Amino acid sequence: MTEQAELVGELRWKKFPVLDDGFVCLVDVMGEDQSVVQAARVSYGKGTRRVSDDRGLIRYLMRHRHSTPFEMAELKFLVRVPMDCWRQWIRHRTANVNEYSTRYSEAIDSAQTTPPDQWRTQAATNRQGSGDLLPTEVGETLSKREAELQALTRETYAERLTHGVAREQARKDLPLATYTEAYWKIDLHNLLHFLALRMDAHAQWEIRQYATTLGEQIVQPLFPLVWEAFVDYRLQAMAISRLDQEVIARLMARLASEGRGRATEEDFLAAQDPAWTELTRCRERDECRDKLVRLGLLQ
Ligand SMILES: Cc1cc2nc3c(=O)[nH]c(=O)nc-3n(C[C@H](O)[C@H](O)[C@H](O)COP(=O)(O)OP(=O)(O)OC[C@H]3O[C@@H](n4cnc5c(N)ncnc54)[C@H](O)[C@@H]3O)c2cc1C
């Protein structure tokens, strides 16, 4: 048995827990790092082998977004996810999906619950995001109310079934926190696209837990070279736009002319793109500032 086959054997059907009652598990995988390399060599010819090793080739493909070789590998998962999270997940149209049917079977008797110390405030700046954690005393009340609500909706659902209501109608008041299960099959290229979007800090915390588990527990060991390139060129990379480049050039010129090393907020505002100057709030300027801080150019 090859090392890869052994690894696949260890990973298949292993349930990696996510949230309080969710999981992801690998059902099947077709391919490995070598499948990406093999497909790329058909395109580039045998001559490539002399100038680049497999790692170099995979990194080149990832850097230049030559995506089709990554489509040669496929992964199938079984996932258990709360329905609100699943609603975001299912927006990724490039997967094949079979979901548990609550018309055919009784809804899964489990809903995601929030511990008292895990309730988040609305983010002050990002309308789609969360801010800090709420005080635990407040969380205790919220978790208690959550438990009461979930118990009531479950009781109501069971009562409807007892009266002979059709499952497809009885389910309508179940909370979005109710867990669902699905088989989810996707090629490696589209899986990485999903992971890039859903492991990102802008994604909701809950789906980030799923994406991070899929990525780090399953994709990383199965495709170590692809994963390394993905982290370097997608996950931890940053895009420097034309506007950003011009800001950096103006900033460096200003610092050089004054013989200073590191820029201040005042320098940044002086060097910002002219189109941003009049705006009180400007997301593009904020993102540019963040990039300069990450690059160590701005205090
Ligand atoms: C942080 C975040 C916030 C979001 N907020 C919202 C929101 O407020 N409202 C909302 O409705 N959605 C929202 N979304 C969902 C988002 O707009 C996408 O629908 C979702 O991320 C799926 O991305 P995708 O289409 O690239 O992926 P996939 O569906 O997997 O597609 C992958 C790629 O295939 C190509 N493709 C697939 N299908 C087609 C097609 N029919 N035509 C052309 N090209 C196609 C595209 O290049 C696409 O990028 C949000 C997503 C994120 C990550």
Descriptive overview:
The protein is an alpha+beta fold and about 300 residues long. The chain has three domains: about 160 residues, Gyrase A, domain 2 (2-Layer Sandwich), CATH 3.30.1360; about 60 residues; about 55 residues. Helices cover about 50% and strands about 15% of the residues. The chain has 13 helices and seven strands. Strands 1-2-3-7-4 form a five-stranded antiparallel sheet. A two-stranded antiparallel ribbon has the order 5-6. A hairpin with a 3-residue loop joins strand 1 and strand 2. Helix 2 crosses helix 4, helix 4 runs parallel beside helix 10 and helix 8 packs antiparallel against helix 9.
Kindly list the characteristics that best describe this protein.
299 residues, alpha+beta, Gyrase A, domain 2, 3 domains, five-stranded antiparallel beta sheet, two-stranded antiparallel ribbon, 7 strands, flat, binds flavin-adenine dinucleotide
* Structural class category: alpha+beta
Main beta sheet: 5 strands, antiparallel
Q: Helices and strands, in N-to-C order?
A: HEEHHHEHEEEHHEHHHHHH
**Number of extended strands:** 7
Radius of gyration from the alpha-carbon trace, in angstroms = 24 Å
What order do the strands of the largest sheet run in, or round the barrel if closed?
1-2-3-7-4
Mean residue pLDDT:
94
Q: How much strand content do the residues show?
A: 5-15%
CATH fold annotation of the largest domain? Gyrase A, domain 2
Distinct small-molecule ligands in the complex: flavin-adenine dinucleotide
**The CATH top-level class label of the largest domain:** Alpha Beta
- DSSP helix count? 13
Helix content: 40-55%
CATH architecture of the largest domain: 2-Layer Sandwich
User: What sort of overall outline do the alpha carbons produce when their principal axes are compared?
Assistant: flat
Low-confidence stretches: none
What's the number of domains? 3
Cα(first) to Cα(last) distance is: 54 Å
